[in-house]
Amino acid sequence: MLENERYGEAMGVLRFLLQCSGQNERNYEEWQSLLEWLEAAFPEAAVPASEGAPSEPEEDDPDEAEMTRQMVNQKAAQDAGYADKLLASVMNGPLTEQTILALEQLAYLERPEIDAALTDWLRETPLHPLLQFRVLQTLRRRGMDGVVSLTRGQETVEIEIDAVPLSPEDFPLAMNKILERVADQTEIHEPTLYYFAQELWSQFIMAIYGTTDYFSMQNEDDSMLDIWAAALHDVISESLKGFRNEEEIRRLYGITDTMRFRYEGAYRSLMQFVSAGVEE
């Protein structure tokens, strides 16, 4: 968050962590010191403590969306190169808040050539899977339909644009059931772990959208949901604690030896995503 200048969100996360119990006292001291430094260095980004940690952004209000559409097209009318500038900011930089803002504005520009530019970019350029997903969302918001073929990870997939989720509620119910299983095991006794599980899961399902892993979760088979929930718990626990407690986590979720192979596959997929994020 700090690398991407998301200071307000970072403050929200620190306030959330300071409310959690059961951590080493030194952790609380470090979190408090960092929070105080952020509040002093970036007062314009500070949010009231009562607001807590950041939440998933909601869909735009219709009136707000229309105002944004008018504002963006007014800028384009005043500057003939405005669309090209937005496309350049998206295509020539890393995935940052500025990139997301540029994609949001592109969603409202009434220029058909934008569809072709973004679609060609998706097909021809290796992109971070989260950036791919954000571009797919932009194409859907622009009203594009049809299928786009692109590479996601090691797979070539075909994405139906008009089916791309625009909000967390648009994802299949099975995705939420997996997170609910983690909540059942962690929400009371390990709230910090559950918070980070929510964050990772929301990013992960966007990154794997349209892949074999994504479709493997959708049949709502209890054993498959348990496998992904346990793998998510395992990865977050290892990341926070510095060691892996696989046997205990497998027991919590009822992962038997016959499910072990699929469980390890789910764990590897999540770890590869986490590692790729660090490398980015």
Question: What does this protein structure show overall?
Answer:
By secondary structure, this protein is mainly α. The protein has helices at 7-19, 25-41, 62-78, 82-91, 97-106, 113-124, 129-141, 173-186, 191-207, 212-216, 222-241, 246-253, 260-279, and strands at residues 147-152, 155-160. A two-stranded antiparallel sheet has the order 1-2. The radius of gyration is 21 Å and the shape is globular. The model is unreliable at 48-58 (pLDDT under 50).
Task: Explain briefly what this protein structure is.
With 280 residues, the protein is mainly alpha-helical. Helix content is 63%, strand content 4%.
Unreliable spans: 48-58
Order of secondary-structure elements: HHHHHHHEEHHHHHH
Instruction: Estimate the strand proportion.
Output: under 5%
Q: What is the average per-residue confidence, as pLDDT, rounded to a whole number?
A: 83
CA-based gyration radius: 21 Å
* Spatial shape: globular
Q: How many helix segments?
A: 13
Helix coverage percent: 55-70%
| Broad structural category | mainly alpha
- Note the gap between the termini: 13 Å
Major sheet strand order: 1-2
The major pleated sheet works out as: 2 strands, antiparallel
Number-wise, the strands total 2
